[in-house]
Amino acid sequence: xxxxxxxxxxxxxxxxxxxxxxxxxxxxxxxxxxxxxxxxxxxxxxxxxxxxxxxxxxxxxxxxxxxxxxxxxxxxxxxxxxxxxxxxxxxxxxxxxxxxxxxxxxxxxxxxxxxxxxxxxxxxxxxxxxxxxxxxxxxxxxxxxxxxxxxxxxxxxxxxxxxxxxxxxxxxxxxxxxxxxxxxxxxxxxxxxxxxxxxxxxxxxxxxxxxxxxxxxxxxxxxxxxxxxxxxxxxxxxxxxx
Length: 242
Fold this sequence. Notes:
alpha/beta; nine-stranded mixed sheet; six-stranded mixed sheet; 22% helix; globular
């Protein structure tokens, strides 16, 4: 089984350009026989809280159909970040497209205080069960909180898949913490981050993969676009630039 995390630069609110960039990286993953690829937080719109009440998505939004088509054709699970309009408000969500299946959604359960004017919290943890692996998605801020780690690992997760939009300071804190998580819970940790400007900060990239011993297996720098691939069968990684 192979899992990929993407790193890319997105343009504020430019949905069609951002989708095109996603497709380019998905095709790289397909060419390398990846089973699951995940993108950064709010990757379809870029991390831009101030625009989400004007630019957001519904569960069955047709603009996202291309991801289902790629999933069906190439048997790959695709997770993209987007603001999802629900009955309770707008969630920070990952929407997963799996071959010939209904869309699955994971929405950030613990949002930062800066996000509360724009977003509401998700209510339930999603797990992806693939080839005897139980994969727990997490979105940015909540991945820094022990109560989220305990929730997912006590429920049997063995892979922590984190989608973020983080600055340099946020990345540095994450590196220290994800190393500790992977060691404490004997789990792989994978982080997908944006690069470039969004909201009022600069995303610092440095997407990475940590093994069960807390070792950083591979990562990008703050400028590269591409995919990092974890091959679970061989306990190896690949770094493929766009």
